[in-house]
Structure formats: C-alpha cells, structure tokens
C-alpha cells in the first residue's frame, strides 16, 4: 500500500503564501498538483480511479465484527441549512389508502399504502460533491471547458451519476478533533495542516496509514457541537477544516476521496487576507479530480475506533445517481 507522509506535502507553507493574492496561490497549487490527463482525456472519475477491484477485496477483509455504522445525518426539515443558498428538505406524504372505507376505489382489496414527495437541494445534508461542482478559470475536471460541462440541462459529462458504482473502498478515519481539540472538538477557524494529519496518523497507529485508493474521513467535532448547541450557522459559517496547505498532501497520498463532518471540508474563514471562497475546492475538484464529501456523521464510528484502536474499515458510499447533478445525498455505511 502506498502510504502518505510529510514528504508528500509539497504545497507552499503558510509563510510562503502571499495572502493578498489568492488567485496566484490557487494557480500555483493547481499547476503543481494537476491530475489532468492522468487517466486519459475522457476520464470522469478522477482520483476514484485509484480504487481498484483488488483494493475493494482488501477492504472487505477488514470486516471482523460485522457491525455497521451509518455516517449520514437525517434528511428532514430540522436539518443544518439556514436558508442561505440552500434549504432543508421539504417532505410531504400522499396517502393512497389508509382504511377500507369503501369510498376509495384503489386498491379494491382492502390494502393500503403511502407515497412521499420531497423537494430539496441535493446538497442539503450528507453528500458528495461531483467533479463538475467547481471550476477554475473556466476549466472543469481534466481540463474541459466549463461551458462544455455545465448547462441548464445538467452536467452530462461529470455529473454525480458517474459515481454511482465505484465509491466502495477501504475507509480510514483520522480523528483530528480528538487529537488536537478540547473535549474532542476543534474551534471554528482551526486550519488542519498536513502535519496535523500526519501526527494523527502516527498517534492512532498502523491502521490509520493513508494510501492509494483510500476514502479518508476527517473528524473535527464541528457536527458534534452543532447537534448539542443547535445548527446555528453550521451551514455556511465559520468552521474548522483543512488548510489550503494540504493540497500537496492530498495529491501525494493518492486517496480516492475525502469527507469531513463540516459543511465545506476546508477551514472557514478561508486563509487569505482578501475575499476568497473555498480555494481548496477550486484546486481539489477541477485539478486533482478529488471527490469531496460534506456533513458526514462520524461520531459513533470515531467512538468505536477509539475503543479498539482500529481506524480502518470497509466503506460503501455511492451517491444517489441523480443524472447531471453537481452533488447528491449519500448514506455512507462503514462496516467493521
């Protein structure tokens, strides 16, 4: 297994950034860590290509107890969205037939049933971003012109439907919140660097080694706090998360995907001194081709991992294949 190390981090350090020039810093990181063409000109899977059939077979061997852990929060009207850009799901039940009153012609044999109707942004709760979700300077994943990917009819090229099958692999949890936080929780604005990730790996032990084709889960404890204190500004507000500095580490580790328990994976406020919005997304998605997951519920899994010291597991996390969508809900299931 290829293992990430501190040597994999070749991104500029915090000290070398010109924090007044996010455009230039993003361009430099993109040029240094681009995966364009790595899997051919027509590729739509990006780093998910690192997940091979052998990798999945190895992941299946991690199942020892058969215990399962859902890593999704509930999708419902009391979810994390505050109405700024996205809303929580709007759900309604349509009764087909609830009793044999004789007044309802369907069905005619005394049966009954209910249908449901849901209206929601596809990224309202636990979800994956597609590789067509973010562009950089007019370019989408693998160097495609964004106008040839995005349309009012959706993204037929790299829409989330393209990820319906392959996102099953070895999962690895790095509990950075437990390692560096207070009572298991990092404060808002805490930038998780490659050194924080590496120190967590070393502290958790051999089962935390991160390598090619793994799906990396990073727990910050931000969701833990939101569920205790209320959602507040959880969706779209300040949060702990990955530093822009981790671009090189993510590229060098050759992971297939990364997901966190925050709304946006990367640290908020973002790390530049002038307005910038999700600069790590701007490199990771269109240039690395890295699948990003947000609002994952990692607490129960983290407790189980801490109890027996095993931080890797079989993970099945395919999104709902909404054709052409820029993201979709997922109910990831870890099996230990």
What does this structure look like?
The protein is an alpha/beta fold and 336 residues long. The chain folds into 2 domains: 6-82 and 121-335, Glucose Oxidase, domain 1 (3-Layer(bba) Sandwich); 90-119, no CATH class. It is built from 8 helices and 13 strands. The protein has helices at 22-32, 53-60, 176-180, 194-204, 222-229, 247-253, 279-288, 299-308; strands spanning 68-70, 90-97, 113-119, 127-129, 168-175, 191-192, 215-219, 241-242, 257-260, 291-294, 312-316, 327-329, 333-335. A 9-stranded mixed sheet has the order 1-13-11-5-7-9-10-4-12, with helices on both faces. A two-stranded antiparallel sheet has the order 2-3. The longest helix has 11 residues, at 22-32. The protein is globular, with a radius of gyration of 21 Å. It comes from Streptomyces mangrovisoli. This is Cyclase. Residues 1-21 are annotated as: Disordered. InterPro entries: KFase/CYL (IPR007325), KFase_sf (IPR037175). Residues 1-14 have a biased composition (Polar residues).
């Amino acid at each position: 297994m290829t293992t990430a190390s501190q040597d994999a981090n070749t991104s500029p350090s915090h000290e070398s950034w010109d924090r007044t020039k996010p455009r230039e810093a993003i361009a430099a990181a993109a040029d240094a860590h681009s995966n364009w063409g790595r899997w051919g000109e027509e590729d739509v899977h990006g780093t998910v290509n690192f997940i091979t059939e052998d990798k999945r077979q190895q992941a299946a061997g991690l199942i020892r107890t058969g215990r399962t852990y859902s890593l999704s929060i509930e999708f419902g009207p009391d979810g994390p969205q505050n109405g700024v850009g996205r809303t929580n799901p709007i759900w309604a039940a349509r009764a087909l037939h609830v009793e044999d009153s004789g007044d309802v012609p369907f069905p005619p044999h005394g049966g009954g049933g209910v249908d449901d109707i849901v209206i929601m942004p596809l990224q309202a709760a636990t979800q994956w971003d597609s590789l067509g979700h973010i562009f950089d300077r007019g370019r989408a994943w693998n160097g495609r012109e964004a106008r040839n990917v995005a349309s009012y009819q959706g993204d037929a090229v790299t829409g989330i439907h393209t990820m319906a099958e392959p996102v099953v692999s070895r999962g690895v949890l790095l509990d950075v919140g437990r390692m560096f936080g207070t009572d298991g929780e990092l404060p808002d604005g805490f930038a998780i660097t490659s050194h924080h990730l590496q120190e967590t790996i070393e502290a958790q032990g051999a089962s935390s080694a991160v390598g090619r084709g793994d799906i990396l889960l990073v727990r910050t404890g931000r969701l833990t706090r939101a569920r205790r204190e209320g959602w507040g500004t959880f969706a779209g507000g300040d949060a702990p998360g990955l530093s822009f500095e981790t671009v090189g580490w993510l590229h060098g580790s050759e992971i297939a995907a990364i997901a966190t328990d925050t709304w946006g994976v990367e640290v908020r406020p973002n790390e530049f001194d002038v307005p910038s919005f999700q600069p790590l997304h701007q490199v990771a998605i269109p240039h690395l081709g890295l699948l990003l997951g947000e609002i994952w519920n990692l607490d129960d899994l983290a407790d189980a991992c801490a109890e027996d010291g095993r931080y890797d597991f079989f993970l099945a996390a395919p999104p709902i294949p909404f054709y052409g969508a820029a993201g979709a809900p997922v109910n990831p299931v870890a099996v230990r």
